[in-house]
Design a protein that fits this description.
Length: about 130
């Protein structure tokens, strides 16, 4: 097994171990936190880094993956209208991340970070009361 395959397996095992001991609320909190971290990294890389950067590419792809996970976790049957509103916010953030990455700007990304920060803070408050 080569180094990259081992690292990928390690990261998968690490995520699985976190999820096995945590509840669904904790899982969403972890994903939101990862999304924020990756969006902030992307913003910094867009502002300060070279035009082509592995850090920028990784933060971009991880941000989109986190949004996909969050959207797939929404319960549209039982969670309306909140699920619909969250889906709209996640779509907005996804669109802004792609636009900023493509145009090498941060304005829409910064507003998306504020949106996700608000969702994260609300989620922390909810999970603390559960």
């Amino acid at each position: 097994m080569n180094f990259h395959a081992m690292m990928k397996e390690y990261k998968t095992i690490d995520v699985q171990s976190k999820l096995e001991k945590d509840n669904p609320h904790e899982f969403i909190k972890i994903v939101l936190n990862e999304l924020l971290t990756n969006m902030k990294t992307l913003s910094m890389a867009l502002k300060e880094g070279p035009k082509v950067s592995s850090v920028k590419s990784r933060a971009f792809s991880q941000s989109l993956a986190s949004i996909m996970v969050l959207q797939s976790s929404l319960d549209f049957e039982n969670g309306q209208p909140i699920a619909g509103n969250l889906n709209d916010l996640y779509n907005y953030c996804r669109t802004e991340i792609i636009k900023c990455y493509k145009e090498q700007t941060t304005e829409g990304l910064e507003s998306s970070i504020l949106v996700i920060t608000d969702i994260f803070e609300a989620w922390v408050e909810i999970s603390n009361s559960v």
